[in-house]
Design goal:
Blueprint: H1 3-26, H2 32-42, H3 47-75, H4 79-95, H5 102-115, H6 120-140, H7 148-174, H8 182-205, H9 212-236, H10 242-257, H11 267-280, H12 288-321
Helix pairs in contact: 1-2, 1-6, 2-6, 3-4, 3-5, 3-6, 4-5, 5-6, 7-8, 7-9, 7-10, 8-9, 9-12, 10-11, 11-12
């Protein structure tokens, strides 16, 4: 699923490194390879993370160079001075969640130590190395292909898988078969989690776009899958009569047939209410087994009601939002 993004990121890392070193050489800077290393470290998985880390590193560079200048000026160009800078800078970086800046900024400070040069020109040289490396990494992240089509394909696949599971459960109920759908349900939940990861990545890459619909849709389907897991366990412990099995199986089939993303399926709740009324009119259970079966049956209908209500609530919320 993430193959294209990985390949693109490899290209961006190589391009950012080469462009940064080339630009640093063109400007006649010293320690030009550091610009390439900074660029390499600044090309992250998403546009938002690269932008955030790049900005943090630029701000941190000013702070690091200022701290190093003070430390080397007071203690001289030696290890204690470098360690003093490191103690203060690392503390501040952790305090303000700028840990990603510690390594690249400290490399720049090491240049000051090794060259024993605190002139404004050399400090500007070090800042430009960070500006070039982080800036080119951010620039290359301007292009980030949308994965919305993959998200939409995932939604279709999840619906098809869920419809298949509901139909299989209906067939098992009708045949009075105790076949479990647990393996399929676990696999479907993994698919939903993978789709949510893709949505989160898209959210990080598209800075000015809200994708709440996709997340809420997948959350709704995940809640439905977990309800089906509970129902699947209850069906394994239930001994239905043929009449009950036919009625319950028909509800599962209707639910599968009306599973579409854009179908509110409100009338299914009326069918469940009718079935509940039918069971309430029946004679009270006479044996322990009949009592347990009746209790599980009511729980199944309650869970199926909740399953459908989740979809109705989702449809209502987004229908109202689009009016």
């Amino acid at each position: 699923m993430f193959k294209n993004i990985t390949n693109l990121q490899i290209i961006k890392i190589v391009a950012a490194t080469g462009l940064s070193i080339g630009l640093a050489q063109l400007l006649g800077l010293e320690n030009v390879t550091s610009a390439g290393i900074i660029a390499m470290l600044s090309v992250l998985e998403t546009r938002k993370s690269s932008l955030t880390v790049g900005w943090q590193r630029l701000v941190s560079t000013v702070l690091a160079l200022a701290l190093a200048t003070i430390s080397f000026s007071v203690l001289g160009f030696n290890l204690p001075a470098f360690l003093l800078y490191l103690i203060v800078f690392v503390f501040i970086a952790y305090r303000f969640d700028m840990r990603a800046a510690i390594a690249p900024c400290s490399v720049l400070v090491a240049h000051l130590w090794l060259s024993q040069n605190l002139s404004l020109a050399f400090l500007w040289n070090e800042f430009l190395l960070m500006l070039i490396g982080a800036g080119i990494a951010i620039f290359l992240h301007i292009y980030m292909p949308s994965q919305q089509s993959q998200i939409e394909d995932a939604r279709v696949m999840i619906e098809e898988h869920l419809r298949m599971i509901l139909s299989s459960m209906a067939q098992a109920i009708y045949a009075l078969d105790e076949k479990s759908q647990s393996r399929e349900l676990v696999a479907l939940e993994k698919d939903i989690k993978a789709a949510k990861a893709l949505v989160y990545q898209e959210q990080e890459n598209q800075l000015f776009r809200q994708i709440d619909y996709d997340l809420h849709y997948l959350d709704m389907r995940q809640d439905q899958v977990r309800l089906l897991m509970t129902m699947d366990n209850n069906l394994a412990a239930c001994r239905l009569e043929l009449t009950e099995a036919k009625l319950l199986a028909s509800l599962f089939e209707l639910t599968a047939a009306q599973l579409s993303e854009h179908n509110p399926a409100t009338y299914l709740l009326e069918d469940i209410k009718t079935m509940l009324a039918h069971f309430r009119e029946r004679d009270l259970p006479k044996t322990r087994e009949e009592f347990e079966t009746r209790a599980i049956l009511f729980q199944l209908l309650t869970d199926l009601t909740r399953f459908i209500q989740l979809k109705i609530d989702f449809y209502r919320d987004y229908s109202m939002a689009n009016e």
